[in-house]
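Researcher: We plan to redesign the surface later, but first we want a full-length starting point. Tokens attached.
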């Protein structure tokens, strides 16, 4: 008989933290990587062809970050990996506020994709070990729904790209501080 029961007792506060981390990660993708960054690049005076190339660099960076994140992932260091990936994402967001040269924008786009790919792979790879199976779908659904709700708020959607970057940086920074509660409880993990 199959069951989705998890063999461990999850920590009491792990579900709200996991929802917040998922929401911050998806908000980073929606509000910053797919919207604010490209709007900032347009405001510098880039042509449509250059914007499309930036999208390509974002995608290639995301692929590289995902592969790197998967290759270097260790469940033992889960909360630390997610925390550092979130910090790197926040740093890339802040960096976009000061960059105006095309060559540097290309490097930043690659860095945004790299850190976002790293974050998403790390977050997904260890989430079950922290949250458990029975509430995993609810946790992911709430996190993604919350990020979509934030993105859909009229004042967020209509905000300047700079304000969107500030909002996302604050969300990701707060979530990075909360990641120690995402300690994996998976019984197959030996702490000795």
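Model: Full-length starting sequence:
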């Amino acid at each position: 008989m199959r069951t989705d029961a998890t063999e461990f007792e999850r920590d009491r506060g792990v579900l709200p933290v996991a929802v917040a981390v998922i929401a911050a990660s998806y908000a980073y993708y929606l509000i910053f990587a797919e919207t604010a960054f490209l709007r900032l690049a347009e405001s510098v005076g880039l042509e449509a062809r250059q914007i499309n190339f930036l999208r390509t660099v974002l995608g290639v960076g995301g692929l590289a970050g995902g592969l790197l994140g998967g290759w270097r992932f260790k469940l033992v260091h889960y909360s630390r990996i997610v925390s550092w990936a979130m910090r790197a994402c926040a740093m890339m967001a802040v960096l976009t506020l000061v960059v105006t040269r095309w060559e540097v924008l290309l490097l930043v786009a690659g860095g945004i994709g790299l850190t976002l790919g790293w974050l998403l792979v790390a977050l997904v790879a260890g989430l079950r070990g922290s949250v458990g199976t029975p509430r995993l779908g609810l946790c992911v659904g709430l996190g993604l729904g919350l990020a979509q709700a934030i993105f859909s708020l009229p004042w967020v959607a209509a905000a300047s790209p700079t304000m969107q970057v500030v909002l996302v940086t604050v969300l990701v920074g707060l979530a990075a501080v909360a990641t120690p509660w995402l300690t994996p409880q998976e019984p197959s993990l030996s702490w000795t």
